[in-house]
Amino acid sequence: MLRSLLLLAAFFGFTAVALGAFAAHGLKSQLSADLLAVFQTGVHYQMVHALALLGVALLSLHVPGRALLLAGGLFVLGILLFSGSLYLLSLTGVRGLGIVTPFGGLAFLGGWVSLGVAAWGLGAR
User: TM spans, by residue (predicted)?
Assistant: First the structure.
């Protein structure tokens, strides 16, 4: 679990920086201000949750249990659905893709709840 979560954190962190630079330099003149903001929201949430994945990976060294694995999986799912749908929406202009975004947000919320459950379990020790 540790290696997979660290690799995913590194991948999503790297791609968040690359996509942010792409938006700032390559898309600034191609997209409307509204669509550029949508793209940047995807980048922001991707980076925050890449860092959350890093935290989950490091916690997994000391905290056993499935709650952390679930948190990591939900953060990955959230990045793919939330940020991915925002990237596609802003690049294609297809507004119907926005229906996917809330499912990514729910995955993020579930990840944070799972992380909380893991933390709650520490108090029982």
Answer: 44-61, 68-90, 96-122
Tokens of 53: 């994945």
- pLDDT tens digits along 41-63: 999 999 999 999 999 999 999 98
Cβ-proximal residues to 76 (8 Å cutoff; 6+ apart), any chain: 8, 12, 53
Residue with the two structure tokens 């980076």: 47
d(CA 62, CA 68): 11
Cα 85 from Cα 98, distance rounded (Å) = 6
Tell me if 35 sits within 8 A of 93, measured CB to CB.
yes
Tell me the C-alpha distance between 73 and 60, whole Å. Answer: 13
pLDDT of residue 64: 83
